[in-house]
Amino acid sequence: MIVDYNSKGSILNPVKTLSFFTRKPITEPIGHRDASPTYRGFHVNDWEKCIGCSTCQKVCDNAAITMVRIPDLPHDEVKGVRNERPAIDYGRCCWCGLCVDICPTASLSLTREYIHTCTEAELDSYFILPDPNGIHKKHFEKGWAKSTDSDLVDLERQPMAEMEPDERLRSFDEMVHGFDDQQAIIEASRCVQCGMCHDSCPTHMNAPEYIRAIWEGNFEDAVEQIYRTNPFSHVCGRVCTRRCETACSVGRRGDPVSIRWLKRYALDRLDHETIKRIAHRGRASTPTGKSVAIIGAGPAGLTAAYDLARQGHAVTVFEALPAPGGMTRYGIPAYRLPYERIDEDVDVITSLGVEVRYNTRIGTDIPMADLEHDFDAVIVAIGLHLSRSTRVPGSDHEQVQGAIDLLRLIRLEEGKAFPEPYEVPRSVVIIGGGNTAMDIARSTARLQLKIHGESDVTLTALEALEDFLADPVEIRESTEEGVTIHDARGPREIVIEDGRIKGLKTLKVESIFDENGRFAPKYNEDDELFHEAEMVVEAIGQMGDISVLGDELTERLAWRRGRLQTDDGGQTSEPWLWAAGDIVTGPDVVHAVADGHRVANSINAMLNVEL
């Protein structure tokens, strides 16, 4: 039969439909029938995989998903885990499957289960909190689930171009090149806007916002979002410890989004004057007449200065060293963080009217009592510029150096194409497994290659390699540059013959902490190694030079395990004195920035009360 679909049909067609009213209705029995292998039935959610990131909620155009807090589940912002799980309103759901396709952890899926009945009084039973057992707590096979064809999450980050090891060893030039435009767009597109990075960051940065702005090509908006929480943006775009990436939901199955490198990209795309103009937005137009003194021009002190200056207060920073930046300048090698990037961050801050007095040591050049008398508030942000010692036999030898001391010597040679700040030995042993240990090991290898034509650097640490405190990237790059690493080795003795260091004896570490979690290393006395070297460098920790406070003030202040004790706003036991940064929270750039904000807010609240 040929059917003419263009025909308008008979005028009797509507009458024919009346015949259906005389037919006997047929009711199919309600029961299970197999659905297709990719059927989109009811949701299930693996609560062990789910981290409560709410990406499913954000992607749902029908607002069918609500995040429900489950108090008994773990909640850890640092690790990127929320105690929330998605609930589905089946009165709104259209079964598009986007929540499954976008789920970063692959915890959500749709089963082949499709039958659910309820009485009129149970209409809210269509609002379901999916778990691994399904809507009726029966097993139904998966229908629509994440697959390589439907996965909307890009699991591979864009590769970051950098110098080859042989090339980077021959200079202190910045070794990482940064993203090009195409790489940045692709990397930004990987972000699912879950906000886990915002929660985990000590400054609670607006990373989803600036990443979206990068994807849209709006670099001014990206930089404005960055400066809302971080005036040390060039610095953190290069050396931040990036807790945000540890918490990134995309990293659960693949590589986390390169949040740090995207920050660097946005800033590198704008000229410095434009960045300054953006940073000045929202500053107070009228001075308050109040003044604040800050001791230390590191990230904590200068972040506080930035905030206080924007709030209209007069700020004077006193810095004992000849240039600003604190440990970011004098503790991080130039191949990771070029001088000019620190200077650009500082210039943004000083352009707000912040005065920095260099080569001025409080307690020596200016008494602490003068600051108390002349300013409305004082902040101590002196950092941790002193190295700790192992105190093993021989550690008092003149050729046993602290890593922080040597790094500062190298950085003080600012202006030289290649620093030669001290008599560099042909062989060196480093004690320590953190980033500082890697920094001095790699810096020493560069100096040795320049001066002696070859490098010989050995690094030993108490921890097993997988437990090193150093960034895994730092460890990899150190080995690429020829540093020999011996993990799980504890220093026993620095061997000295005829007044000169011959090397370091180490023992195999069996455990580092006792049953109560206290530091109490145990060694295998039968497993000893000798590491030949002309110099030993200790990189086992840092402490602050509290001599700036003076004996009397030091006695009056409250302390906690060698660090200044403060309240939630950073105020010490002395009502005129606040403390911020490494001296309070320990060594970490982004924590220091967050601490600077915290202290500035506390002081601003106090000063406004007095206005």
Summarize the structure.
With 611 residues, the protein is of the alpha/beta class.
Q: Can you give a write-up of this model?
A:
By secondary structure, the chain is α/β, with parallel strands linked by helices. It is 30% helix and 17% strand. The model has no long low-confidence stretch (mean pLDDT 92).
Give a quick set of tags describing it.
single chain, 611 residues, alpha/beta, five-stranded parallel β-sheet
Helical proportion, percent range: 25-40%
Mean pLDDT score, rounded? 92
Major β-sheet, in short? 5 strands, parallel
Give the distance, in angstroms, between the N- and C-terminal Cα atoms: 94 Å
Beta-strand share of residues: 15-25%
Low-confidence stretches: none
Strand order of the largest sheet: 8-7-6-9-22
Task: Determine the structural class based on helices, strands and strand pairing.
Answer: alpha/beta
List the helices and strands and how they pair.
Elements: H1 13-16, E1 43-45, H2 55-59, E2 65-69, E3 84-89, H3 98-102, E4 108-110, E5 127-128, H4 165-168, H5 181-189, H6 196-200, H7 207-216, H8 219-227, H9 233-239, H10 243-247, H11 259-268, H12 272-279, E6 291-295, H13 299-310, E7 314-318, H14 327-330, H15 339-350, E8 355-357, H16 368-374, E9 377-380, E10 386-387, E11 400-402, H17 403-412, E12 428-431, H18 435-452, E13 457-460, H19 472-480, E14 484-486, E15 489-497, E16 500-513, E17 519-532, E18 535-538, E19 542-543, H20 551-556, E20 559-560, E21 563-564, E22 577-579, H21 582-585, H22 589-610
Parallel strand pairs: 6-7, 6-9, 7-8, 9-22, 11-18, 12-13, 12-18, 13-14
Antiparallel strand pairs: 1-4, 2-3, 3-5, 10-19, 15-16, 16-17, 20-21
